[in-house]
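Give me the fold.
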Amino acid sequence: MNKAEILIIDDEPQIRKLLQINLESNGYKVVQASTGKEGLIVSASHPPDLILLDIGLPDKSGHQILKELREWYNKPIIILSVQDNEADIVSALDNGATDYLTKPFRTGELLARIRSAIKRSQNTENNSTILCGDIEIDLIARIVKRKEDIVKLTSTEYNLLALFAKNEGKVLTHQFILKEIWGYSYQTETQYLRVFVGTLRKKIEENPNNPQHIITESGVGYRFQ
């Protein structure tokens, strides 16, 4: 049985019930909240392993709840929303959302996203070596290997790959990546980022034209898997 506990913050009773049935049938413990305020109280009194957060809440915007949660809560938060516009998705990811799914969503996809997010969260942050498929990254020695062969990377390429790997499975927006690697003044230089992603793919991907590790999330950013 899966012992992970999931908090659902959603004002629609039928959505909460459907999620509860599917999650409990897959071994998760489920807690519910129908408002943003209630969700904040429940999560603070008994922090769950993952939060499913609806953007359209009756008392507070889900974006505001997300910001308040991220002041102290460092476990996965997956956004569920009927809004599928790019600005909404980018805003949520920039504010700390782990992932974003639009309603209606496929149950299998949601469960896969949940499993991936919890697995990453449970991995020790002190692990000095990250394994992602055939890629091995030694964070202390700053050595990258692909199929046991050392990959020669520039300092910037390494920093970019390490950022991706530390956030494996999570969508990172263009703005977030540019800020983390090059600083605030580069947050609009998306073409600059594309060039470096292109060179990095040539070094770590079996087929750079059909990447299996650095996946483009159209209009938003990249996901490393």
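The first strand starts at residue 5 and ends at 9.
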